[in-house]
Design a protein that fits this description.
Elements lengths: L2 H5 L3 H10 L2 H26 L1 E11 L10 E11 L2 H34 L3 H10 L14 E4 L7 E4 L8 E6 L2 E9 L5 E7 L2 E9 L5 E7 L2 E9 L5 E7 L2 E9 L5 E7 L2 E4 L9
Antiparallel strand pairs: 1-2, 3-4, 5-6, 6-7, 7-8, 8-9, 9-10, 10-11, 11-12, 12-13, 13-14
Helix pairs in contact: 2-4, 2-5, 3-4
């Protein structure tokens, strides 16, 4: 939007546009959408009481023992009972996160609007262009005001991001990582996703420097819930973890398309067959 079009809006329309365009509001909206989808998935899972797994096996369909083998990949779907108490706990955690973020967003939008309503038009337009948040607080990722110079608005007052922990870029609260952010580690690993009180908490993805990628639910800095593990070899494991330990059902898909059911208890494999030359 051009500056003259922005100036032609009412002050309430300008406030709504500025506050709705901030990076922090967009991040919270994205979080709410993701959590809403996860809550719906958990409710559907609890209603059915079963989780469907697709199991594939390489079988020989040759008509005789001495004939040339005719190897084909056969897949079947099977239902596995869920742990209702555990899945309800996961759902309730998502609901708690959703309510907290929604409340935070409502409060921040209200504070933002009050400040923008008192600003000169040029100052409000500068904030609109920058996407920065004029208020501090939960998930705003901002601190003290600084003067920003632009060609169109020579003295626009905006706010810049607060001092971040080393290797971190994202939202903060009271000096701690809180909201959505990316943490790069000294060994080359990287985490992107939700944070709460300086811990990985919510939905996130961890990228290892050796090419492994773990994506799923985090609770108090540990993988806890449904997780997808992708390996450089092309193997993919999808299953459950508790406190960074594999626990419960899972499926390992091999690079050739075959897949195998697994079951773990406290990180120990109870059943399951690894892929040939597996790196898992």
């Amino acid at each position: 939007m051009k500056s003259d079009e922005f100036a032609a809006l009412s002050k309430y329309e300008r406030a709504s546009l500025v506050c709705g365009s901030t990076d922090s509001h967009r991040a919270r909206s994205s979080q709410l959408a993701s959590l809403s989808e996860l809550i719906e998935q958990q409710n559907a899972l609890l209603k059915s009481g079963m989780r469907t797994w697709t199991t594939c096996r390489m079988v020989n369909e040759s008509e005789c023992a001495i004939c040339t083998p005719k190897i084909v990949n056969r897949c079947t779907d099977g239902a596995v009972p869920i742990d209702s108490n555990y899945e309800a706990k996961v759902r309730d955690d998502y609901v708690s996160q959703y309510e907290a973020i929604k409340s935070s967003d409502s409060a921040e939008m209200s504070r933002c609007s009050q400040l923008v309503l008192q600003m000169p038009v040029s100052e409000a337009y500068g904030l609109y262009l920058s996407g920065l948040d004029p208020v501090g607080g939960v998930a705003s990722g901002v601190s003290t005001p600084n003067t920003v110079t632009t060609a169109e608005n020579p003295t626009v007052v905006a706010r810049t991001k607060a001092s971040q922990p080393q290797g971190y870029a994202g939202q903060m609260k009271d000096g701690s990582r809180h909201g959505v952010g990316t943490q790069s580690y000294g060994n080359g690993d990287k985490y992107y996703g939700d944070w709460r009180d300086d811990m990985r908490h919510g939905k996130g993805t961890y990228f290892y420097n050796d090419g492994r990628v773990y994506e799923g639910a985090w609770v108090a800095d540990k993988l806890d819930g449904y997780v997808t593990q992708t390996f450089p070899s092309g193997e993919i494991y999808e299953g459950f973890m508790k406190k960074d330990q594999l626990d419960g059902y899972g499926v390992l898909t091999c690079p050739d398309g075959s897949s195998f059911d697994f079951y773990y208890e406290n990180g120990k494999r109870v059943s399951g067959t690894y892929c040939p030359k597996s790196s898992y």
